[in-house]
Amino acid sequence: MYYGRATDKLVQEQGECGGVITAVLIAAVEQKLVDGALVIKRGESIYDGAPYFATTKEEITEAAGSLHCAPTLSAKLIKNDFNGARDLRIAVTCKPCDARAIIELSKRNQIDLDNVYMIGVNCGGTMLPGPAREMIRQFFDIDPEDVVKEEIDKGKLIIITKDGQHKELSIDDLEAEGYGRRTNCQRCEYNIPRMADLACGNWGVIGDDAGKVTFVEVRTEKGQKLLDTAIAAGAITLKDAPPQGIALREKLDGIMVKMARKAMATQFAQFDGERKFERLFAQFDKCDGCRECIDVCPICSCVECFTKQEFVVPKDTVPPDPMFHLTRLMHVSPSCVNCGQCENVCPKKIPLATITHMVQSSVQGTLGYVPGQSTADAIPLCKIAEVKA
Ligand SMILES: Cc1cc2nc3c(=O)[nH]c(=O)nc-3n(C[C@H](O)[C@H](O)[C@H](O)COP(=O)(O)OP(=O)(O)OC[C@H]3O[C@@H](n4cnc5c(N)ncnc54)[C@H](O)[C@@H]3O)c2cc1C
Asked: 194 and 64, same structural domain?
């Protein structure tokens, strides 16, 4: 475990916390360890971040910095737009849910993990651009377009405006009002991407180093290769993380896990107790069968979707037969990585991610499977097949 920093002054300045990630990506591309870097590039404002395949130092540097209003997911993008990384090698910056989804798709032979270098960023949660703008206007009394930077630190959402104002509000208070982080992020127990090749973040950086370096944990041989390549190119400096820093990082992670479990209890309670199935099916009755949830889900990867079979779900009925959602739940819940994409795209605002995560949590103990956690354990249906064989 190290404290890492870019050596290039511009990369240090552009980077969120010393630019080690940007420097590692540049070295990986320039030294031909990978063909390009899949990063998140800022558009016109902090609410406007989109995936971008960068192949030059300039392009990678331009995409430096953390965008908390960019809840994109790279896994299905790699599968669909990059042919599952079968023909080219990609370094990708990953939130833990990105990394977990990439691992799940690799287990389904949809992504060639040997060609993907996952540079994980710790993640305390992301926000949706629209509600974030609304929240900043309503609670911070600031024009959202004047915000140049936002971060979540020690339970506060901090925003900085172009004229240098700093304002902060308790994230708990904002979330109690229905704003703040996406609801799936509030329930997320995986804030340090330990399943990625490198796990990077500012938690655990103490003293004079705060804000200037990033805590880097090497998780795999590929992670070590990324660092070795950057060191050989003279792109980064590393020093050992101090024991107090390591302990603080663990402590912060523990606090986030406790908060996530509390959020799960609160959010899942809407489908607990008396008439719970009635309430669940009332949600499914809102569905107009647009299938957006299936299109974005990183776990949905069947070539021929089972729910398109007429004997499972009769055609053109609105709402679709309950078998649509029950089949979907049966397919995705054992491996759901709680990325929240299904819920975010649903035009009828059905709390799909909450429902799937609730089912996933309840089957996790029985199946003994934590989705996207490791490349070693087989996906549940394969396990059943192994037992039967
Ligand atoms: C959404 C988000 C939440 C975070 N929350 C925490 C936290 O709670 N605790 C903590 O310790 N650290 C957190 N981090 C990590 C931290 O902000 C820094 O990214 C990290 O310390 C690396 O700093 P750097 O200067 O090396 O990164 P940089 O050199 O600036 O590189 C950052 C890279 O991340 C990419 N990126 C930007 N936004 C996203 C995104 N939304 N999804 C995927 N990739 C992205 C950029 O394109 C860039 O390539 C978070 C990062 C993000 C993106």
From this structure: yes
| Antiparallel, parallel or unpaired: β 156-161 and 166-170 | antiparallel
Which range marks the domain in which residue 332 is found?
A: 272-388
Work out whether the CA dihedral 76, 99, 341, 366 comes out positive or negative. Answer: positive
With a 6 A CB cut-off, is 350 part of the ligand 1 pocket?
Answer: no
User: Does the Cβ of 17 fall within 6 Å of ligand 1?
Assistant: yes
Copy the structure tokens of residue 4: 């890492």
Is 95 a pocket residue for ligand 1 (Cβ < 6 Å)?
Answer: yes
Based on the domain organization, do 291 and 197 belong to the same domain?
no
356 shares a domain with 245: no
Structure tokens at 197: 């090749």
Instruction: List the structure tokens of 312.
Output: 């499972």
144's tokens = 């959202």
Say if residues 298 and 338 touch (Cβ distance below 8 Å). no
Ligand 1 pocket mutation pick from 16, 52, 209, 215 by most atoms within 8 angstroms of CB: 16
pTM: 0.94
Mean pLDDT to the nearest integer, 172-183: 92
Kindly tell me if the per-residue pLDDT of 154 is higher than 90.
no
Domain-ending residue, one of 146, 161, 180: 180
